[in-house]
Amino acid sequence: MPAIPKAQAPALVQFYNWILHPLAFMETHYRQMGDRFLACGTLMDWIFLSHPDDLKYVLTHDGQELSAPGEYNKILTNLLGHNSLMLLSGAQHRQRRQLVMPPFHGERLKVYGELIGTITREAIADLAPGQAFKARELTHQISMQIILQAVFGLRQGERCQRLGRLLAQRLDLSSGPLGSALIFLPLLRRDWGAWSPGHQLKALAQQIDDLIFSEIQDFRADPDPDRSDILSLLLAARDAEGQGLSDQELRDELMTLLVAGHETTATAIAWSLYWVHHLPDVGAQLRQEKMPKTLMNRLGTCA
User: Fold this and answer.
1) What is the count of structural domains for the chain?
2) Has residue 41 got a pLDDT over 80?
3) In angstroms, rounded to a whole number, what is the distance separating the alpha carbons of residues 239 and 246?
4) Is residue 145 part of a domain?
5) Cα-trace Rg, the chain
6) Cα separation, 196 vs 190, whole angstroms
7) Residue 40 β-bridge partners
8) Pair 230, 150: CB distance under 8 Å
9) Is 162 inside any structural domain?
10) pLDDT confidence of 148, banded at 50, 70, 90?
11) Is residue 45 part of a domain?
């Protein structure tokens, strides 16, 4: 990979611009330096890549040349927990990955695919053909329901509704300038009283943890072998020595799946709908493939 140009502004200026104006920050440096550039932060430097060839290189190249040590993600500890796969490195990371990956292979994916299809059809059931809608709101709704049902195994009831509401609030706190500031500036995460973001964050996290731990404990007390959600499979997983995940480790991996899978998936699908709508040839090709006609008709106009 060729040498990467470096942003020249002082590190502190770059840091605050990245927190307060992330899109403008990336667009400005893209115009100045192209598809790849190096930005300096207060904690570490970041390499920004946008060309498909660069992304392919990173995702497919030898891990001995390119790696992602867990310690680089320590700023996410407050959100994910100390035991998250994203915060582990080396042998510990490999062992945990082997333990948690089986639910994402083979027949399990077919089951999740059917569930995703059902949730999507339910979410768009009230949309009339040709009706405009906000794609990101719809995909957020779909993504959250998939996580609640496929990951946590919750389909209905007070716990499901409450957890969904609290998780959405927690993710909202992690987005935008305030969310970035909470991640990068530890002082803001401190509990300075009821008025402070740190207090709200702590109270919200405790409510979420109470619900997650209750679900874990209920399953341990009365396991259901017919369940196929990821939580139940992780509860049953054992390593080579016959050891399973602790309640805290389970909680941290569930939060990792939530954080890594909700916003990213919802945003990617929303952009996919945008481009399908704006590239008629792509939409026509989809209609000729396996996507149900009723689904394409309902998703024909998005805002």
Assistant:
1) 1
2) no
3) 12
4) no
5) 21
6) 8
7) 45
8) yes
9) no
10) very high
11) yes
